[in-house]
């Protein structure tokens, strides 16, 4: 995945593009060299070895229990948690052998089973994407925490109820939690791509996209009444919840998911862009920077290229580009809190 409001809604939308790109581009699956190495996989699963490299856990059943040894020979817990079993390790190392043969013949990398041939690091499937996802998670936490400190320790509060004057504070708190959740599952998914991590990653991305779309409507139209907010948010959140349930409980329809994500992403991008054009907000330039930067970052997903040295691909660089934009986005949110608070204080006086 990705993952903030406004222009960065495109980042969430692009997470929904990934399965389409994966399904449509698996040249390596039909590669004659890989077909030759299918025998490598079968041989590895029987012997537990690829060339000179052997895997101890090929002597274990699918539940991690040794087929010919005592209890203390059980597969290591971290391998069972990562789901690196005999079959996946055999496929991985046979794939590396295939790529090594292709490189010797002067050919570049191709995709296998819909994914580039990444090299693992410490048992992690895409270590660079995991690292950048973790940095995005840290940036979201930093932004949310600094926003919290600003509201409750720096800005004046209402003397009646000791709450912030800023009307959208609660909504942004929820947004911060939803965004951190999305980046957490993005890191998990890139660590190990299995069915449940995929569903959690895309479900979290859709949830963030739907919530940020709702928040974009409420902020750009300055909806402050509780009843009006419920009328706006209820149908949107119900739609997003239904969509997530459909993906998880019925069918993980990548095509439909892409349409839903892109529609919500473009809609809120237009909302923020138009609002930034008509408002006199002192920090509107930050909003414009986020919108334009998000559009440029989208090119990284369109121009897909194989991982450099087996680690850094276009998607990993896209993850890196979201880090400064996330910082700028939270800076805008804090500026908005200060701006709205100053206006409300003038009205009170």
Automatic annotation (TrEMBL):
Gene Ontology molecular function, alphabetical: hydrolase activity, acting on ester bonds
This protein's UniProt keywords: Golgi apparatus, GPI-anchor biosynthesis, Membrane, Signal, Transmembrane, Transmembrane helix
Key word Lipid metabolism present: no
Gene Ontology biological process terms from the UniProt entry: GPI anchor biosynthetic process
UniProt keyword Magnesium, yes or no: no
Signal peptide: none
Topology of the protein relative to the lipid bilayer: Multi-pass membrane protein
GO cellular component: endoplasmic reticulum membrane; Golgi membrane
Intracellular or extracellular location(s): Endomembrane system; Golgi apparatus membrane
Pfam family, one: Per1
Listed InterPro entries: Per1-like
Superkingdom of source: Eukaryota
Broad class of the protein's primary localization: membrane
Transmembrane regions listed in the UniProt entry: 7-27, 130-153, 165-188, 200-218, 230-248, 254-278, 285-303, 315-333
Function: Involved in the lipid remodeling steps of GPI-anchor maturation.
Annotated family: Belongs to the PGAP3 family.
Identification of the protein by name: Post-GPI attachment to proteins factor 3
Organism encoding this protein: Kingdonia uniflora
């Amino acid at each position: 995945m990705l993952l903030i409001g406004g222009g960065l809604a495109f980042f969430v939308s692009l997470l929904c593009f990934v399965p389409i790109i994966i399904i449509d581009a698996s040249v390596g699956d039909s590669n004659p060299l890989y077909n030759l190495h299918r025998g490598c996989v079968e041989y590895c699963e029987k012997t537990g070895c690829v060339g000179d490299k052997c895997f101890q856990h090929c002597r274990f059943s699918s539940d991690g229990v040794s087929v010919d040894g005592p209890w203390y020979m059980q597969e290591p817990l971290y391998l069972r948690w990562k789901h690196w079993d005999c079959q996946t390790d055999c496929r991985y190392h046979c794939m590396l052998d295939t790529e090594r043969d292709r490189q010797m013949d002067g050919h570049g990398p191709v995709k296998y089973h819909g994914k580039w041939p990444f090299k693992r690091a410490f048992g992690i499937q895409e270590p660079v994407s995991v690292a950048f996802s973790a940095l995005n998670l840290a940036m979201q936490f930093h932004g949310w925490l600094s926003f919290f400190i600003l509201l409750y320790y720096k800005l004046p509060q209402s003397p009646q109820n000791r709450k912030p004057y800023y009307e959208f504070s609660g909504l942004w708190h929820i947004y911060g939690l939803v965004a951190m959740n999305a980046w957490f599952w993005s890191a998990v998914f890139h660590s190990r791509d299995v069915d449940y991590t995929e569903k959690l990653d895309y479900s979290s991305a859709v949830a963030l996209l739907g919530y940020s779309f709702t928040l974009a409507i409420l902020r750009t139209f300055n909806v402050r009444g509780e009843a009006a907010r419920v009328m706006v948010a209820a149908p949107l959140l119900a739609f997003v919840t239904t969509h997530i349930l459909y993906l998880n409980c019925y069918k993980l329809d990548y095509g439909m998911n892409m349409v839903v994500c892109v529609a919500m992403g473009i809609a809120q991008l237009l909302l923020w862009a138009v609002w930034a054009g008509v408002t006199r907000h002192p920090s509107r330039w930050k909003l414009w920077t986020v919108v334009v930067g998000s559009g440029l970052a989208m090119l990284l997903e369109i121009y897909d290229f194989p991982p450099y040295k087996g680690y850094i691909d276009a998607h990993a660089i896209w993850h890196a580009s979201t880090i400064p934009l996330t910082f700028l986005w939270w800076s805008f949110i804090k500026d908005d809190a200060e701006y709205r608070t100053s206006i409300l204080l003038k009205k009170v006086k």
